[in-house]
# Entry
Amino acid sequence: MLRIFKTIIISVVFIYTLNAQERHESFPTWIKSVPEYGFNGMQNSLTQKSNLLIIGTAGLGALLAYKYDDRIQDYAQREGLLPDRVSQVGDLYGGIWSAWLLPISIIITSKASDETNREMLEKLEFAASALVANGVTTVILKQLIGKERPNGSNNRSMPSGHTSHSFAVAAVANELYGCKVGTVAYLIAGLVAISRINDNNHYLSDVIVGAGLGTVIGRGFAKTYQEKKYIPNITINNMGFKITYNF
# Structure
């Protein structure tokens, strides 16, 4: 989880620096926009009606799963839920691959569709902000809850960081590329969740909370991204008012 967090932090600093240069902003002005975007994103994450339903469902599911965590974990370790190679792919995707695949895909698809640098940077800003917010929230919850992992390695079991990260990526991909790509991304995120149980790193209740957390944060920041895209820019010249929109 620490490796994921470091990777995301490095990525977001790089992206925001490019964004500042693109807009010809000074560093102090740019840095002030970071908490604002994050605040709006988290606010949308916790106030959308659909997100509240997801949070409630995930919470109820985790409570029910908690009663059977040990039994499910015993079965997973005895019978195995995934082949070793498949489980390893899930671990790598949730741990590091998706953190790089997402920005790379944004850059490639933006270039292919002849989008402006500003449009591409706004997408990168959205993706990075969502993943950073999810990573920070996941780390905080891990520390507050202090649940022991099934393998006994530490007390940072809930929520699953790999799972929350993968579901946040899926929510971002769904916003940027549509439901077909989003559905595939969510299915891969589900594979990541199963791999974490299979590898004895998390209980079922851990991955349920992680899935809910990543989904609502990704969706919340997607709404902020939508709102930001359609804010009109009003300028005044000799001919009168001119209104343009960011798309």
